[in-house]
Design a protein that fits this description.
This protein is mainly α. It has one domain: Growth Hormone, Chain: A. It is built from 17 helices and two strands. The protein has a two-stranded antiparallel ribbon. It is globular, with a radius of gyration of 22 Å. It starts with a helix and ends in a 5-residue tail after the last helix.
Length: about 475
């Protein structure tokens, strides 16, 4: 009986983790994402808490959150172009290495007390830019690493690298953010606590991501044009009176090449009815209920009586833990009808949970509802990403992914900035409640007005 029970449990776990178990290259790229995003979240939580301590308000946390997300609006199209033009694995490795170098410089600046708030904003912008270039290549790699029958599982597991990494990273970092906390053995300090140590930890996580990226061996290319492709990469120009004109012409052709490829991606997502519906859902979801990085530090200080960054760290960790639970449920889906039900229920939950969290005054209760926020919001993002990627052709996946990220990250940049300023005028609790209510109203309205969306809820299928 016990053996049978163990086999059933193992079979259930295996079904949820099938892509990680069966495909070594997907496992490498998944671990790349876990450690890369983990390092980013450690940096973001630490930087926003430092901003609250130094400025006393939520404006600087809003500026730092804005700086970290604005690159997704500015550079995502370039990331999609790179992912469809060059070997996607090489794009991932190059951006990971660059992020590692940047994280090391940040850690050195922190240890030597050279960092000001504007340095954190600038570093957040640079990290966000590199991540915006990396993310389309990672997502475009996945369909080339797993069998088609495991596509949904792999795409949803990849969503864990975005939100679940908060749990793995802050599980270590949050305790170290507490005042006076250190890891010691026999009164000998092994790891001192404080923001300096945590920023060093961020660099270590980012470095490990580069290591796993180097292990990935998948060769994957997209295609920029649907017809015969002409490469506009400049050839070696022979010395002549016309060499400068040739170089100039090649540069212009290269810009045209990039613009045409990017425009094709925009045309595809805006003319494809299903994808445009999901883009609209994602934009409102990110704007209204996922843009909380700028106000969570002030919320933890003003309503949960946080004296240091550890409470903020635990809240972010709880969001990550909930994300893991929710996304693993999505990863185990096998029926199309279940996908539609998950899309609807997690959408509604995404609006309700921030309201309930904002009403809590005890850190443990707040962590519980933040965990439920993570479960619903990460699952909603994962299931929409599954729909977008599965209906996109492989030659366009890099650009479609980049434009998905552009809409999500771009809107979050400006809403985080706005909420940071609004929280100083009103308070963070009011913003959580009002934005949650607006999203529930919006989701109800768009669902009632779009038969296509109601059909997806009912059947899970994107075709009539």
């Amino acid at each position: 009986m016990q053996n049978t029970l163990n086999q059933l449990i193992w079979r259930r776990i295996r079904n949820h983790l099938i892509s990680l178990i069966n495909y070594s290259d997907f496992r490498n790229i998944w671990l790349t994402g876990i450690f890369s995003f983990g390092g980013m979240w450690i940096f973001t939580v630490t930087a926003t808490w430092i901003a609250v301590e130094k400025s006393g308000g939520s404006r600087w946390p809003g500026i730092i959150a804005f700086s970290s997300l604005l690159p997704f609006l500015l550079f995502s199209p370039a990331g999609g172009f790179l992912a469809d033009r060059y070997n996607r694995r090489d794009v991932v490795l190059t951006t990971c290495l660059a992020n590692t170098i940047l994280a090391v410089f940040i850690a050195i600046g922190a240890v030597t007390d050279m960092l000001q708030l504007w340095h954190f904003a600038l570093a957040a912008f640079a990290r966000g830019g590199l991540t915006a270039l990396m993310e389309p290549a990672i997502q475009a790699l996945i369909p080339n690493q797993v069998a088609e029958k495991h596509m949904l599982n792999a795409i949803t597991l990849n969503a864990l690298t975005h939100h679940g990494s908060r749990f793995f990273a802050l599980l270590i970092a949050a305790p170290l953010l507490a005042s006076g906390v250190a890891l010691s053995v026999s009164e000998f300090t092994i790891v001192p606590g404080g923001v300096k140590t945590v920023l060093i930890l961020s660099a270590i996580f980012t470095g490990i991501s580069s290591l796993f990226a180097s292990f990935c061996a998948t060769v994957s290319y997209g295609k920029i044009t649907s017809g015969d492709e002409k490469s506009y990469i400049p050839n070696k120009v022979t010395d002549s009176l016309f060499s400068m004109a040739n170089r100039t012409r090649n540069m212009i052709n290269g810009v045209i090449y990039f613009a045409r490829g990017t425009l094709e991606g925009f045309q595809f997502i805006y003319t494809h009815k299903i994808i445009s519906i999901f883009i609209i859902l994602v934009v409102f979801h990110c704007a209204l209920v996922m843009s909380f990085e700028s106000i969570m530090p002030v919320f933890s200080r003003d309503f949960l009586n946080a004296a240091d960054g550890s409470i903020l760290g635990y809240l972010v960790m709880a969001f990550g833990a909930g994300s893991i639970f929710g996304v693993l449920l999505v990863a185990g889906l096998t029926k199309e009808t279940h996908k539609g039900w998950v899309l609807l229920s997690t959408g509604v939950g995404s609006g309700i949970m921030p309201i309930l969290m904002a009403l809590m005054q005890e850190p443990l209760l707040a962590m519980l509802f933040v965990g439920l926020m993570g479960a619903t919001q990460a699952s909603f993002m994962a299931i929409t990403n599954v729909y977008v990627l599965t209906v996109s052709p492989d030659r366009l996946r890099g650009r479609v992914t980049s434009l998905y990220v552009l809409h999500a990250g771009g809107i979050m940049a400006f809403t985080n900035l706005g909420y940071g300023f609004l929280a100083d005028l009103f308070n963070a609790k009011v913003i959580f409640i009002i934005t949650g209510l607006i999203f529930v109203i919006f989701l109800t309205a768009i669902s009632m007005s779009m038969p296509t969306l109601r059909r997806i809820y009912r059947t899970g299928e994107t075709t009539a």
